[in-house]
Design a protein that fits this description.
- The chain has helices at 12-24, 35-44, 61-69, 85-94, 106-120, 122-127, 159-169, 178-186, 195-211; strands spanning 4-8, 28-32, 49-53, 76-80, 98-101, 132-135, 139-142, 147-150, 153-154, 176-177, 218-221, 225-228.
- By secondary structure, the chain is an alpha/beta fold.
- It has two domains: 4-124, Response regulator (Rossmann fold), CATH 3.40.50.2300; 128-228, Orthogonal Bundle (Arc Repressor Mutant, subunit A), CATH 1.10.10.10.
- Helix 2 (35-44) runs parallel beside helix 3 (61-69), helix 4 (85-94) crosses helix 9 and helix 7 (159-169) packs across helix 9.
- The protein is globular.
- The N and C termini lie far apart (51 Å).
């Protein structure tokens, strides 16, 4: 069965362009031009991924994402004409898996769609080794269950935040560049989007500190990226 994608955008030219290219790539495509229609379709139909514009009539993309995350973990790629950090941070905080700034390259967007779908597929989950990873402050990651705990308190992490934390815990003491995070977590190598890594790490660290300041096991390495802190590091 072809994978089903919902495109949500109020610009007819963008809808037509994306629908044409996705159908050529053998995806099943439905479209919506406003937020309320998008929510109705998302609740009535099972989608493998949603392309969600931020600036929409009726309900904007942030509201749509927020509502969907109450009951669904469908992968969401946000489309935005505003390349501002606050848009990226809010989108990631609400649970978006990725974002693309307009005007965008169709080729790049298709690569991101494939990467997000691959990361979210049941086969990808089943292929992960059954393992338990731990960090400071009582941090525990049950990889097979995709569950993160600080002591006995569950962490409410997005799919992206969980994968970032998993990558760090799986490489203790190793400095990982932003480009490596893009390749291993996002599923593509696109250095121009390295700011997405910083935004996502910032939100992840805030959640760790809120649960237990000692659980923030992530250290920034200036000019390179991030690493998992040793137990004796401040």
């Amino acid at each position: 069965m072809p994978q089903r994608i919902l495109i949500v955008d109020d610009e007819p030219a963008v809808l037509d362009l994306l629908a044409y290219n996705l159908r050529r790539a053998n995806y099943e495509v439905l479209t919506a031009a406003d937020g309320r229609t998008a929510l109705r379709l998302a609740r009535d139909t099972v989608f493998d991924l949603i392309l969600l514009d931020l600036m929409l009539p009726e309900l904007d993309g942030w509201d749509v994402c927020r509502e969907l995350r109450h009951s669904s973990q469908v992968p969401i790629i946000m489309l935005t004409a505003r390349d501002e950090e606050v848009d990226r941070v809010v989108g990631l905080e609400l649970g978006a898996d990725d974002y693309v700034c307009k005007p965008f390259s169709v080729r790049e967007l298709m690569a991101r769609i494939k990467a997000v779908l691959r990361r979210a597929s049941p086969e990808a989950v089943e292929s992960r080794p059954v393992t338990r990873l731990t960090g400071p402050g009582g941090l525990t990651l049950h990889v097979e269950a995709r569950e993160a705990l600080v002591q006995t308190t569950p962490l409410d992490l997005t799919r992206l935040e969980f994968d970032l934390l998993h990558t760090l815990l799986a490489h203790p003491g190793r400095v990982l560049s932003r480009e490596q995070f893009l390749e291993q977590v996002w599923g593509y190598d696109y250095p121009g989007d390295a700011r997405a890594v910083d935004s996502a790490i910032k939100r992840l660290r805030a959640k760790l500190r809120a649960a237990n300041p000692q659980a923030d096991c992530i250290a920034a390495v200036r000019g390179i990226g991030y690493k998992l802190k040793r137990n004796d590091e401040p």
